[in-house]
Amino acid sequence: MTPDDITRTFLDHYHRHGHQDAPESSLVPPPGDPVLFTTSGMHPLTPYLLGRPHPGGRRLANVQRCLRTTDLDEVGDDTHLTVFQMLGSWSLGDYDIVTSLRWGFDLLTDGFGIPVERLHATVFGGGNGEGPDDTARDTWTGLGVPVEALGEDNWWSNGPTGPCGPDSEIFVWTGDGPPTGTPSSDARWVEVWNHVQMRYHRHPDGRLTPLPHSSIDTGMGLERLEMVLRGDRSVFTGDGLRQWVAAVGNWGLRDEDLRVVADHLRSAVVVLGDGVRPGNTGRGYVLRRLLRRALTVLWRDDPARTLDGLPPELYADTLRRFRQPVDVGALHATLVDEERRFRGLLRRGRPLVDRVRERGPLTEHDYHWLHDTHGLPRDLVDGLLAETS
């Protein structure tokens, strides 16, 4: 199934169960939101999970582009991406977790054709004053799916405050031969979907108070599901990433380096597509950091490599997949200009860092001086130090 097929199958399934399409949001949250980027499908729906009536009703579904910097150091493995698409469904005070899990099981087995023998679930086993989620456990057992009860890993929240609750996660076996072990003991069990019971609001002091109504929030990564349905071992073989891997591979990069550069450049295109521009603070700095991390890897053994040679069709395909009507020429010009700026910064920064290091190991004062006076962030300074160590 292509990503378009998967999305259509997902939305059609929930439309048959009375769900309306929730509008997709930008990666950039509205003014006043404390987070830099939309990190999950539920993030734009937070006010409605807290009790406000949604104009679309109490049953919703959509596909939402998301960005997570918390997983940045894991990018380069088989399953993590910085920017990805999330398939989501919501019950805003309507049906319960039993219904959500049963509908999810039907979609995975009938809609996507995953044999029940390749499924494993985890549920909240209790902790922090909350008892185990016996309802979710009994539902999975009744459907013939093995269950593992875990602790904090199955308590979901979108941050230190806000809506939260017990989470049931669904895993698919990706190994050869019959499934063995459990999700916590064998990495060949890959998580594809979680179903969260949004029961509580966590306050800044850590208190939990019940929400006006209990809701269900589910999220399933499109790229990871595509990997599982293809029978592949890596998200980088999917339709939306394969072209990036091929283009980056032309530079001679391999393995983790290839994946990091492909992910970061693709992510930068999507961030640019939502109107963010490179800068020294906030969202602009996240974008700048993605590009500079990619360029640092790219130039590690050949400083002559340049983004100028990437085909415009690559940008156009990514923007289409993320539903972003952006001028490709302007986006390309921004990338090339940021590359030029970074080359200049490196040219000026190397002798500065060398001069400071001649006095001995860098101190916190040195780092602050290099950043505040010369615009050299700490991670860049550390990279320059590593080059000559």
Automatic annotation (TrEMBL):
Domain Alanyl-transfer RNA synthetases family profile: 1-389
Pfam families: tRNA-synt_2c
UniProt-listed Gene3D superfamilies: Bira Bifunctional Protein, Domain 2
The enzyme's E.C. designation: 6.1.1.7
Signal peptide (UniProt feature, chain positions): none
Keywords of this entry: Aminoacyl-tRNA synthetase, ATP-binding, Ligase, Nucleotide-binding, Protein biosynthesis, RNA-binding, tRNA-binding
PROSITE patterns in the record: AA_TRNA_LIGASE_II_ALA
Family matches, as CDD domains: AlaRS_core
Keyword Aminoacyl-tRNA synthetase in record: yes
UniProt keyword annotation of Disulfide bond present: no
Entry similarity comment: Belongs to the class-II aminoacyl-tRNA synthetase family.
Protein name: alanine--tRNA ligase
Organism listed in the record: Micromonospora chalcea
